[in-house]
Design goal:
Elements (H helix, E strand, L loop, with lengths): L3 H6 L2 H9 L22 E7 L6 H5 L11 E10 L3 H11 L6 E11 L7 H21 L4 E6 L7 H7 L11 E3 L19 E5 L4 H12 L3 E6 L4 H10 L3 E4 L7 H8 L4 E6 L14 H24 L3 E10 L2 H5 L5 H25 L2 E7 L5 H4 L3 H9 L9 H12 L10 E4 L8
Parallel strand pairs: 1-2, 2-3, 3-4, 4-5, 6-7, 6-9, 7-8, 9-10, 10-11, 11-12
Helix pairs in contact: 7-15, 9-10, 10-12
The chain binds nicotinamide-adenine-dinucleotide.
């Protein structure tokens, strides 16, 4: 399962050889740890066009010191005021001299405005920022990420800016994230934002789900680790380690939602639909049972339990639903018509339900779409396909379960109420479906 090539290119001879052969140069990504929770350096705040954002106080609260010029761990370019092609020149003028000195595993964050329906010059210039961001993400290298956030209110986007300007977003690059203007609920403690909240993680006994449970517990949540009865021992082990509880339940049970609600009489604050399976075959060889099993676990059960829990009022106001899509659902993948269909369905569910769930229940609905993540699921992929999956992204490596977990924790954050209906890829800017 270990990425031996990444370890090899981390050594001096490995680096030398891979360079000489023109092979990918993955950087060892700098991830969050309690000892080193912040990026290693200052933040450079640049502006293109005339901006109305009240950004400085929010950036100050990231804890990163302001950089005057020279080396920075993060560069934020406020391009919300870019309204025409001429102003795009200011994007170039601001970032052209700054990009070279962004530290390894650093961040470039572009802030844009929603494209205006009644101003095609502004819309063109703002859309241009997407192509710019994605292109810079592909060329910047050295473990550095580039993302675009569209926003109108810096305060509503605080949890998002903090996430993208931290080591927690190490494997999120090339993304465009829309943040609304709803007033944020600042947590009492940004270190433990989920204190006093309950989170249920389906498929939490191992892999990405286990990492999600760990990360939400780190953030203060009381976690309920749900998995199939056959994985109960593992679910218990995870739950005990995190001071939570286990729930042995197959999410495809017709009454799974009702049973979850019954197990949580005090309600739930975060529902994380992570359980998922693959049953790969090309369509010509795909029997109905393999098709049905994948659609049932990955999509039908997500719809059913979500509906049941919302109808029962089991999700408290301020609640969060995070479902798990996949880049296979966005790009398509040979041998995965069933899986791709199920994961695209998750994205459809999220986009359609999000506005209604927020209006009627005060609950946000978002999805994470992992790319190639190092788990038992991907360890089972044949060697050459596995190696291609790992390298075919801007960071030239697979992600870790914790990368999906950190993204989930940001979406589950009490201050992320203005992030709704988003499908956020955690894929190192995979070339698939980019
Ligand atoms: N690993 C990747 O690269 C990757 C990429 C894209 C998406 N994903 C998605 O991320 C999620 C987690 O993936 P993973 O790699 O950790 O998988 P995994 O196989 O390691 O773990 C999945 C967990 O879900 C549980 N589960 C399966 N069916 C269930 C059911 N009916 N009821 C309750 N629990 C059930 C399993 O017992 C297991 O503990 C899945 O939805 C998967 O499709 C993974």
């Amino acid at each position: 399962m270990a990425d031996r090539y990444l370890s090899f290119t981390g050594t001096a001879p490995g680096r030398f050889l891979s360079r000489r052969l023109g092979l990918p140069q993955p950087a060892v990504l700098r991830r969050w740890s309690p000892e080193r929770p912040a990026l290693d350096g200052p933040l450079l705040h640049l502006t293109a066009g005339a901006s109305d954002l009240d950004l400085a106080p929010v950036l100050a609260r990231t804890g990163l010191k302001p950089a005057e010029a020279g080396a920075a761990a993060a560069v934020v370019l406020d391009a919300t005021g870019v309204r025409d092609v001429e102003a795009l020149g200011e994007v170039h003028a601001a970032l052209h001299p700054a990009v070279r000195s962004v530290a390894a595993s650093g961040r470039v964050l572009v802030l844009g405005a929603p494209p205006a329906a009644d101003d095609h010059h502004q819309a063109a210039a703002q859309q241009a920022l997407e192509g710019f961001t994605r292109s810079l993400g592909k060329e910047i290298g050295r473990g550095r990420t580039v993302n675009l956030v569209r926003l109108t209110d810096a305060h509503a986007a605080e949890s998002t800016l903090r996430f993208l300007l931290s080591p927690k977003s190490a494997y999120v690059s090339g993304q465009v994230i829309h943040v609304g203007a709803d007033a944020p609920t600042a947590p009492d403690d940004w270190e433990r934002p989920l204190a006093g909240r309950t989170a249920l993680v389906t498929g939490g006994a191992r892999g990405i789900g286990e990492a999600v449970a760990e990360t939400l517990a780190r953030d203060g949540a009381r976690v309920v680790v749900l998995d199939v009865p056959a994985a109960e021992a593992d679910a218990r082990r995870v739950a005990e380690r995190l001071g939570g509880t286990a729930l042995a339940l197959d999410v495809t049970a017709a009454d799974a939602g009702e049973r979850i609600a019954a197990a949580l009489p005090d309600g739930l604050d975060a529902l994380i639909h992570n359980a998922g399976i693959t049953r790969d075959r090309r369509l010509v060889n795909m029997p109905a049972d393999r098709w049905g099993a994948v659609l049932e676990v990955n999509l039908a059960s997500v719809l059913r339990t979500t509906d049941a829990l919302l109808a029962a009022g089991a999700l408290r106001p301020g609640g969060r639903i995070v479902a798990t899509a996949s880049i296979a659902g966005l790009a398509g993948n040979a041998g995965q018509t069933n899986y791709g269909a199920s994961k695209a369905g998750v994205a459809g569910l999220v986009r359609a339900l999000a506005p209604r769930a927020l209006a009627e229940h005060g609950v946000t609905v978002n999805a994470v779409a992992p790319g190639f993540i190092e788990t038992k699921m991907t360890a089972a992929v044949p060697l050459f396909i596995r190696e291609a999956g790992r390298r075919m992204n801007s960071l030239a490596q697979g992600g870790l379960p914790v990368d999906v977990a950190e993204t989930t924790a940001w979406l589950a954050h009490p201050a992320s109420g203005a992030v709704n209906g988003q499908v956020v890829r955690v894929c190192g800017q995979s070339l698939l479906g980019a």
